[in-house]
Amino acid sequence: MITVLLVDDHPILRQGLSGILSLEDDIAVIGEAADGEAAVSAALQLRPDVIIMDLRLPGLSGSVAIQRVLARAEGVDWTPRVIVLTTFEDDDSITDAIEAGATGYLLKSATPDEVVAAVRATSEGHSVLAPSVAAALVRKMREGTAGRLLSHREIEVLEQMADGLSNAEIAERLFLEPSTIKTHVEHIYTKLGVSRRIQAIAKARELGVGR
């Protein structure tokens, strides 16, 4: 069963999403939150597999809430996936969310089937991006700015990948849990727009990121 936390300040949207997801036998909505602070609190308490989060929230923004949740999850036996579901498709919003650690980025124009598919895909560690979002990330790479999307820790992990180390070996060298390294690697793939380890290393070298 894939557990989901819904975060949006509009009750009608949360109700609609909950209704859509509840029709699926393998998905269960276990909580809701209407603002950034409540989202962080609910996520840490409920530990859902997937968090669907808007970006513009009262109090903490969605991007800051994502950062706080993932920072607290790092190093413990919990690897949440975050899908941004928003109306904003400008480059800055996309960059902020991906940099914060979002695994998926969908627009609220997405169909119910697309949302359900995104929940399943992200729960399995895949990245899901709306076409316009993927195009924005490609623009960033063409401008040579994709490297700046990587956090310091992600650059460290990428450098170890370039040295040929496995996730387990990287975890041992950086004193982190293997599950944490796996999450960092997934974020690197998303930010560099690749799907394989060798592609990430090649793209990083092309952009001057890492060794």
3D architecture notes:
This protein starts with a strand and ends with a helix. It is of the alpha/beta class and 211 residues long. 54% of the residues lie in helices and 14% in strands. The chain has two domains: 2-140, 3-Layer(aba) Sandwich (Rossmann fold), CATH 3.40.50; 145-207, Winged helix-like DNA-binding domain superfamily/Winged helix DNA-binding domain (Arc Repressor Mutant, subunit A). The longest helix has 15 residues, at 178-192. It has helices at residues 11-22, 36-46, 62-73, 91-100, 112-123, 131-142, 152-162, 167-174, 178-192, 197-207, and strands spanning 2-7, 27-33, 50-53, 81-86, 104-107, 128-129.
Count of separate structural domains: 2
Extract low-pLDDT stretches: none
Largest sheet: 6 strands, parallel
Main sheet: strand order: 2-1-3-4-5-6
Spatial extent as radius of gyration? 17 Å
* SS element count, helices: 10
Mean pLDDT: 87
Q: Determine the N-to-C terminus distance.
A: 40 Å
For this entry, what is the oligomeric state of its chains?
Answer: single chain
What would CATH call the architecture of the largest domain?
A: 3-Layer(aba) Sandwich
Shape: globular
Q: What is this structure's SSE topology?
A:
Layout: E1 2-7, H1 11-22, E2 27-33, H2 36-46, E3 50-53, H3 62-73, E4 81-86, H4 91-100, E5 104-107, H5 112-123, E6 128-129, H6 131-142, H7 152-162, H8 167-174, H9 178-192, H10 197-207
Parallel strand pairs: 1-2, 1-3, 3-4, 4-5, 5-6
Provide keyphrases for this structure.
6 strands; 6-stranded parallel β-sheet; Arc Repressor Mutant, subunit A; Rossmann fold; alpha/beta; 10 helices
